[in-house]
Amino acid sequence: MSIGWADCAAPPAYPTLKGVKRGSVYEVERVVVGPLETNCYLICKGSECLVVDPGAEPERIAERLAGRGVAAIVATHLHFDHVGAVEALAERFRAPFIAHRADWELREVFARVAESWGFEAPRLPEPSPAGAELPLGLRALHVPGHTPGSIAVLGDGFVLTGDLLFRGSVGRTDLPGGDWETLVRSVCSLYELPPSYAVLPGHGPPTTLGREARANYFVPQSTCKKY
Ligand SMILES: [Zn+2]
Ligand SMILES: [Zn+2]
């Protein structure tokens, strides 16, 4: 979940998902789902896709797959708004579910947070632990801070940042397991990647690492020296 957008001005030109596709071996599609408008991404290579953060609306996500297979379902972290459709899709496509252990250990705590906000806590299959290698040649980076088990999904020319990094903003750190200094270090580690990389966040519009390094309201690259 995002904290308020720091940057309320009209959005500048930012890379489109089509921009990701150009020169990439992957096709990336976004499906915005659920009451918190979570970005679910389909990262597809040929007829196989990785489904990242299916937060709700499994039927719509399945439709968008349009007959393609699901190599795996990945959660950038286990907040309910990112995993509400995991169980339905994992059963329907017989796909493995991948998430980081550190978040799985907090699943009961996250469930209570969801309930305290009036949402039903999703039931989840036990995930395979996220290692560095993901199916379809994608990679997982451990980027704790928003939650201890947050991961980013890295492809050629793009990175899915979950609730770590948004356009102009970063994820909140006041939920269980969140930690501000850890989050800053994780964001700074992403700035080591090429600035042209598209950032595809868990909520809101895309951006680039270069733009955020320069102009992120909370964690521009100039902050990184202090951490
Ligand atoms: Zn979220
Ligand atoms: Zn979250």
Automatic annotation (TrEMBL):
Origin organism is Thermoproteus tenax (strain ATCC 35583 / DSM 2078 / JCM 9277 / NBRC 100435 / Kra 1)
InterPro entries named in the record: MBL_Glyoxalase_II, Metallo-B-lactamas, RibonucZ/Hydroxyglut_hydro
Alphabetically list the UniProt keywords.
Answer: Hydrolase, Metal-binding, Zinc
| SMART domains the record matches | Lactamase_B
- One family from Pfam that matches here is Lactamase_B
The GO terms this record gives for MF are: hydrolase activity; metal ion binding
Q: Where are the transmembrane segments?
A: none
Its recorded name reads Metallo-beta-lactamase family protein
* Cofactors that this protein relies on: Zn(2+)
Ranges where the Metallo-beta-lactamase domain occurs: 37-203
